[in-house]
């Protein structure tokens, strides 16, 4: 299984289990200028942080799940990846992994010559999560050892 296969499967599972999609962004074979990608990622992250801060106050969603991956389009080398779920009572706990991985992408992107595949999916769930634990945990791939097929 490739990393992208895992991500695609995870997103399909989340779409079927979580009723509310907050972000569903995909850019395939994308070649933005590094300065544009920097601005894009920073603006996107600011928007996500603001959304989570609102969720802290409104408690609209009890739990959110997110999947982010950025791959070199040709080599399929991972430039950023996070997959997790968390309660929405603290914004920082829900966003710190994404912040880290977007920063990793921005650091590595200027040094590659190939386009990237960029996927971000975040969804929310309004009540208890006991029935969702299996779909959230699942079997995560070892990103370091996966080789594209």
Name some characteristics of this structure.
149 residues, 4 strands, globular
Quick description:
The protein is built from four helices and four strands; from the N terminus they run αβαββαβα. The chain has 149 residues and is α+β, with helices and mostly antiparallel strands. It has a four-stranded antiparallel beta sheet.
Characterization of the model:
By secondary structure, the chain is of the alpha+beta class. The chain has one domain (3-137). It is built from 4 helices and 4 strands; from the N terminus they run αβαββαβα. The protein has a 4-stranded antiparallel beta sheet with strand order 1-4-2-3. β2 (63-72) and β3 form a beta hairpin. α2 (34-58) runs antiparallel to α3. The longest helix is centred in the N-terminal third of the chain and has 25 residues, at 34-58. The relative contact order is 0.27.
Mean pLDDT across the residues is 84
Could you give a short account of the major beta sheet? 4 strands, antiparallel
Alpha-carbon distance between the termini? 8 Å
* Overall tally of structural domains: 1
Q: Strand order across the biggest sheet? A: 1-4-2-3
**What is the total tally of β strands?**
4
Q: Please tell me what the overall shape is.
A: globular
Gyration radius over CA: 15 Å
Helices, by number, come to 4
The portion of residues assigned to helices is: 40-55%
SSE run: HEHEEHEH
Oligomer: single chain
Please indicate the percent range of residues in DSSP E strands (runs of 2 or more): 25-35%
By helix and strand content, what is the structural category? Answer: alpha+beta
The parts where pLDDT drops under 50 for at least 5 residues are 139-149
